[in-house]
Amino acid sequence: MRAALHTLLLLTLFAVCGSPAYAEPLRLSIVHVNDWDRLDARDGAGGAAKIASIARYERDRVEAEGGQVLLTFGGDMLSPSLLSGFDKGAHMVALANAIGFDAAVLGNHEFDFGPDVLKQRLKEAKYPVLGSNISYKGKPGFPGAERSRLVTAGEYKIGLLGLTTTDTPSLSSSGPDVGFAPLAETAKEVVAELRKDGADLVIALTHAVYQKDLETLRQVAGIDILLGGHDHLVLVLYDGKQAILKSGSQGNFVGIMDLTVDRVEGRNGPQLVWQPSFSLINTTDVEPDPVLAAKVSAFSSKLDRELAIEVGVTEVALDTRRASVRSAENAFGNLIADAMRTATGADAAITNGGGIRGDTNYPAGRTLTRKDVLTELPFGNRTVTMRLKGSDLRAALENGVSQVEKGAGRFPHVSGISFAFDGRKPAGSRVSEVKVADTPLDLGKVYVIAVNDFIARGGDGYTAFEKGEIVVDASSARLMASQVIDYVQKSGGVKAGVEGRVRRLD
Length: 506
Ligand SMILES: [Zn+2]
Prior knowledge:
2 domains; alpha/beta; 5'-nucleotidase,  domain 2; Purple Acid Phosphatase, chain A, domain 2; six-stranded mixed β-sheet; 28% strand; single chain; 506 residues
């Protein structure tokens, strides 16, 4: 680090001491946001109008001095907000167009509604979206996304690439047609292409955890600047040669990297030098941009109209507080599982308590709205059905209660199944008295099971479901929330309370 800084200082001194200038120095301000799916400010920070306001302020300031602004997005905008549950992220692209991003990378959440919806969203986007390591149907690239881009800034060329986490298939619904190549390997190739095409400065937009970002930078010396996302960290890292900037999430913070780029005489001919300064702006005190604020409020009203629709009255009290849905049978958990089983015609249904997020007490007699259901199930999860052996079903239930003492989100809510468990026993041997449709579980028999797509993929430790034979996969499955809404409407309200489906012996 010290050696690198020393070199940089020497180079700068050399530049100052009268070597011939190859080009006018460039003032480049990178304004970076990542992981933003929220319309409005929360607790005073973030949201579209504040992001737009900083971008406009920075453009005015830098362009007045003859510099240039690059407004970048580090991935994850299409999901999982409530309005996205209705319009599959269309409003986010409309807002991003209005804010005027210059480049974005695809995040895992961009695949939450499947590749076909993403293709449509990419058609709507007026800014370039990079997907350098993504392939589609066996060929490099994703329709509507770019492998790389060269932009001109003053007398300099800036190369851009975009890398998306290889975890996307397990985090999202990218499906069997979309592939994600290793990040550093891809970056090496794309950076070489960009340098060959004359890129003076190379910027990688990434959507991955920072450990991966560090690995990518260490392995690919040709990347100058990495603008990240995914792990919601506010982060600046600089070793004198390469820099990382990540801006948290939701526009609560907006990161700015202000660069002076210059081409000077080096030991081996012309050489590019750049000096950064960094700011991480907490947006709490930022005035919202009025144009974007108006768009946000129009989308909020649309959302309110969609959500206000009443679905039915609950005859039982419902308690969706975090501790309640992760420790014991729960009336709301039963409701969800009943809706999944009824909608699919499966023998049984299982969903994990961690997917229930409303953290609310509803008294008996309360009218539930769509908003209540979507607040409880905000992730846009779908109901997958599979054929599963009794022994794997039993293993899944064991997993479900394996961390009950930690309040883990894997706690199972069931329909068509009843069982008992003893949390004092070692994990893996806690479950007993399992019945499916009031008949003791047959370990050798194959059952049709409905589960949410997250646990179907082995999420929350449910690896037993990976052994199932899929009947309806996530891409063709329906939203759990829609099934719950339909079920409450058709049943004329919520009737089932806690009825001994999951009995605790401890
Ligand atoms: Zn992400």
